[in-house]
Amino acid sequence: MTHSSLLKSTALALLLLGTQATCLAQSAEKGKEAFIKNGCWQCHGFVGQGGVTGPKLAPDPKPFEFINVFIRHTKGPMPQYSEKILSKEDLADIHAYLQSIPKGPDYKSIPLLN
Ligand code: HEC
């Protein structure tokens, strides 16, 4: 390999890495909007804490792949969301939002509860 072709392939590899990183970039901010726009909050609560109808989703959400399969195919009480209704990108943002929700304090650190 000549010096210049090595340079070229290094540049190409860096370029590919860069594109991949932008494709996978997820935004908790956008995810919060999508969570509200798609009505997830109605059953799961605004911060995924769970509600009367839906179970808790956060903190510690299940892996993205699980959620992506679940919401496309569920036959339970939750409506299905096809990719036409909710794209994979928006769902990845929702997942990032759920991951960004902090855990509450440990009850052991609250004197009144001990
Ligand atoms: C009409 C109420 C309703 C709406 C709207 C709704 N869900 Fe649900 N969701 C449920 C119910 C009820 C369950 C539990 C049902 C089951 O396990 O079959 C559930 C289960 C889930 C689960 C599986 C939880 C687990 O731990 O197994 C995920 C993930 C989930 N919902 C995500 C979402 C997302 C993301 C949205 C918005 C795009 C959404 N849901 C909108 C009612 C809803």
Would you mind describing this structure in some detail?
The protein is an all-alpha fold and 114 residues long. The chain is built from five helices and no strands. The protein has a domain at 27-103: Orthogonal Bundle (Cytochrome Bc1 Complex, Chain D, domain 2). The protein has helices at residues 3-24, 28-37, 40-44, 64-73, 88-100. The radius of gyration is 20 Å and the shape is flat. The protein starts with a helix and ends in a 14-residue tail after the last helix. Residues 38-40, 42-44, 53-55, 57, 62, 67, 70-71, 74, 76-79, 81, 86, 94 line the site of heme C.
Task: Give a brief description.
The protein is 53% helix and 0% strand. The chain is mainly α. The model is unreliable at 16-22 (pLDDT under 50).
Give the topology.
Layout lengths: L2 H22 L3 H10 L2 H5 L19 H10 L14 H13 L14
The structure holds heme C.
Number of strands: 0
The CATH level-2 architecture of the domain at 27-103 is identified as Orthogonal Bundle
Class based on secondary structure composition and strand pairing: mainly alpha
Q: What overall geometry do the principal axes of the alpha carbons give?
A: flat
